[in-house]
């Protein structure tokens, strides 16, 4: 095919689309189902209607080929486990037992609801949700971050005994629905190599087990699914292999080569499009290019832009289809259309056919910027959410196929919008820039070394050995959320809302004092979210009203937008912290979200290096830290749960990231007196990669998620000689289970194997916002009892 015909054939598509619906209808239907308020048929009907509406929207926008199979009731990786029959044994047994009258398989929310909810039986949805959320008797699959995004997937559990079996029902049904609407549709599956690379050894299987050894067993299952999809009318099927953008061993690259050679050799199959995104494909590019697959989808945005030169270096993809991800699926800025057209033009010479798409699924961006009413219309023109991105993709495909003349109006408007952003005062605040430029090394260093600070803090705080504390949030009750919704809707005034918050703080403080906790928190009742709350109070940040993005299951966040230079017009947390401190003689921890997490869980500026944005945020937070100290806080926690997840996917980029990330944290925290204790908190396991960085934060105390891994994080820190205080979590707050005193005691003793008593804290894994009060009360009382028991048993303990 010549370039010209490649251009003429250019089509628009997307890799995937938000699932929740314009008003999070899916969340509401699923949570209603869990509560017994919505029946299975109604839930299925809502889901089908949402799928229909999104396909229709894509088609009406001019998308030529819509994705199918990207919908999910909970998580598409879990759906893949169902598709290949990788149901953990404990769930298989529970589902079988569920048919017997003695079964206790039912969702937690039903267990906890005050009786009267009928148990559902024999419904496949329940088995599915049990894998996602667990039941009273059966633990769920583990949840972890999808690459470096804020989306969480359920980790497949595999072992040498895993028997795969194809179940293509959901994929076939969705394809059939879309084809029934008269649309060209392309099923999207998690590819077999990525699926295995994301898996972990099932419980009871040796940790050294490598799931990739199951490839030969898995490929026939994919072959069967592909056959079923072909029979159902699939012309193309997309297999997502984002795991191949990470540094991979020759063994993994060989596995990829084998997988696509074998799938490519199937006699009656759809054409195959292998997709990668989030970074450049690197050494996997020539490997995949040599396989018989008919197409590759590559990311050409951000760090992945290097795919362009890599593609040229391998001589392009002659005769193959290239789906060019030129519209960023991870960020919310309008596309520079002319730049993208130039990229697409170059790509025309490098492939048999070029189509236009998003860089990755649009799952990671909100649905529609046009429904935001509170964003300045001038600034709203700079934003593209899923709906606007779809329009950009269609425009680019038209421009590619018909020439720029066909999209002259769009290009002119785009030029004006880009110029308005570039020239805006919002993005260039001279005071912020001057302050950031004047930062010195000394600003990021505490005035005394850790050992001296520790002594000063010990004298100042007078805490017992094994001090108890919590991570910040207490239950975000329906009453609190409703009060906030009422305030927004004008049903209550500010005074009424604030009285509600004050009352909650009094209750949280009273409970902690009674329970005997040593370092208290105010409970964060005033915060809708630990990132959005601060974004709403910082100049240069935009918050959205409806910009929901799925974080996991039915939980969503509204990532704010780092749009301009960041400054803090006034203190953000001092008032509620001071109020809480006025209610007690014990120390109340000030509670802030750190600069790295503020970036990681927001949409970031793409017009300056991330490190510069981080420094601006850090300086604003530094003022808050210092103000808290001035107002009387002796303990201040700066949460950095996202420090690990934002680690670049390719190791070559990691050192630079860790340098600016740790610098931003130190800049936030280093302005306090030596006797002010700085805490930090991280709650995503796999700290092994960033132990040095944790040390470089120079925080006085770190609390970590450790309950499920039985103190592994504490042990890892100990192996590198971590010198500071550590609170490895002894309460897994992701589960409604209440840990018993013995269980917490055992974990603490295990913690003592790694960290000496003088440096060990007692706390939960993370905040308690998603938990209910009854569990929280019982669990924290047990945690305090365990701390006392272990304290008393320590050698030399005063009896
Ligand atoms: N940004 C961010 N990323 C994160 C985390 C995090 O805490 N924040 N934690 C990890 C993921 N964990 C998460 C844990 C919980 C929720 C969560 O509970 N989300 C809530 C929404 C939280 C929120 O924004 N609440 C607002 C708005 C609540 C709301 O839905 N209001 C209703 C009306 C009120 C009502 O009737 O409930 C509406 O606007 O329609 C508030 O409290 O004000 C949900 O999906 O339900 C999300 C992620 C990793 N990434
Ligand atoms: C995801 S980390 C959460 C930390 C926050 N301080 C909380 O307790 O909710
Ligand atoms: Zn946490």
TrEMBL record:
SUPFAM superfamilies: UROD/MetE-like (SSF51726). It comes from the Bacteria. Zn(2+) binds at residues 681, 683, 705, 766. Keywords: Amino-acid biosynthesis, Metal-binding, Methionine biosynthesis, Methyltransferase, Repeat, Transferase, Zinc. InterPro entries: Cbl-indep_Met_Synth_N (IPR013215), Cobalamin-indep_Met_synthase (IPR006276), Met_Synth_C/arc (IPR002629), UROD/MetE-like_sf (IPR038071). Residues 1-22, 96-119 are annotated as: Disordered. One of its GO terms (molecular function) is zinc ion binding. Residues 466-788 form the Cobalamin-independent methionine synthase MetE C-terminal/archaeal domain. Residues 13-95, 124-347 form the Cobalamin-independent methionine synthase MetE N-terminal domain. It is an enzyme of class 2 (transferase). It catalyses: 5-methyltetrahydropteroyltri-L-glutamate + L-homocysteine = tetrahydropteroyltri-L-glutamate + L-methionine. Its EC number is 2.1.1.14. The active site is at 734 (proton donor). GO terms for biological process: methionine biosynthetic process; methylation. 5-methyltetrahydropteroyltri-L-glutamate binds at residues 24-27, 145, 150, 601, 645. Its cofactor is Zn(2+). Catalyzes the transfer of a methyl group from 5-methyltetrahydrofolate to homocysteine resulting in methionine formation. This is 5-methyltetrahydropteroyltriglutamate--homocysteine methyltransferase. It comes from Streptomyces caniferus.
